[in-house]
Design brief:
Structural class: mainly alpha
Order of helices and strands: HH
Number of helices: 2
Number of strands: 0
Helix content: over 70%
Number of domains: 1
Strand content: under 5%
Distance between the termini: 87 Å
Shape: rod-shaped
């Protein structure tokens, strides 16, 4: 009787151990599924963020290029305007003093004075304003 009871207890303990092992397997499988889902979601999140950063970079680049193109066009038009006004002023001064080459030299001297003042006073201010403009375009 004692042996029967002992074998019955052993059978019950084996059943309990098997049940626990099976529950552990189910638990581990569930955890593995959760971890796989977590990796998939993390991968999707990273890919989405990379795509978002690419789109932001493209947007910033497009804004900067369009701004530079507009400014270059404006600069070109202003250059042509100043060239025409300078030519007219040089001809007018040359006719006024009856010496055409001297009229062009006087206008050239005026521009030399402006360039000298720019290098002495305004170069840092202009560089700073252009730099701030570009940075603000990139930050927006």
């Amino acid at each position: 009787m004692f042996k029967r009871r002992k074998s019955s207890l052993q059978a019950q303990s084996i059943d309990v151990v098997e049940t626990v092992r099976q529950e552990d397997r189910v638990f581990i499988e569930e955890k593995e599924k959760i971890i796989e889902q977590l990796f998939e979601k993390t991968d999707t999140y990273i890919k989405t963020n990379v795509d978002l950063l690419k789109l932001k970079a493209v947007g910033k680049t497009a804004t900067l290029v369009s701004s530079l193109t507009a400014n270059l066009t404006l600069f070109s038009l202003c250059f042509l305007l100043i060239l025409m006004i300078s030519t007219g002023a040089a001809i007018w001064v040359g006719q006024d003093i009856d010496n055409m080459p001297l009229g062009f030299m006087i206008v050239a001297g005026f521009y030399t004075l402006l360039i000298t003042l720019y290098f002495l006073l305004g170069k840092k201010m202009i560089k700073k304003s252009v730099r701030e403009s570009v940075i603000s375009d990139l930050i927006k």
